[in-house]
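Pilot study result, target chain (235 residues):
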Amino acid sequence: MKAPTGPIRTYAQVASTQDIAKELLDAGEPVGAVLAMDQTEGRGRFQREWHSRPGESLTISWVMDQQADHPRPWLVGMAVALVAVGVIRCQIQWPNDLTIGPKKVGGILTEIHVTPDGRKIPIVGMGINLNQSAFPEEIAHRAISLKMARGHEVDAEALARAILARMPECPEPDSWDCLADVWNLFDHTAGKQYDLGDGETAVGIGVGPDGQLICSVAGETRSILAADAIFGSSS
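Predicted structure:
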């Protein structure tokens, strides 16, 4: 996969790395990623908040300019997720949750930003728990950090550069077929519970031929795109 062409821009504190990336693109500034040591208003899929304290998490937004105008931009985010999986040695659950055992260690959010010249640039936001020793009670049952799992601290900047260096080893996400073989090695989607927008609950079966979720709803098999499902409270 072609890596971003611009530099990694590092900030001591930002509200949102996604928003800073968009501002830099609109200003015509070279940017390959926005890395924050402290992010105060991070967000996940469906506007969920992503909280991180200084030094505890990798909070970064990758500006995937080499995949501009991609017809299936969700595949770009899934490819970046696979790169992270290989670097931190974890599993993945559709669409972009990074897991160690039953617990979540990170997540990815892909947004499309239209630049002033009309290019549609995928911006892949990534949050990975690095150095937390504990989590708030309400999420402790489903969250884990690399320090908790591996027993040592991880430097955010070093991890970001390791992920960037590994990107060319990932297949270009031209289609799901390009990613499927690698994804299936690390996939833990089967059995995952999802809450659908209509109040129904789905159970993951696997990933379909276009990168969509194949799931079971009350015994009926359905196909759901990433924008149409959110993780349930058990995630």
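One observation from the pilot: Helices lie at 17-26, 73-88, 146-150, 156-166, 176-186. A full batch analysis is planned for the follow-on phase.
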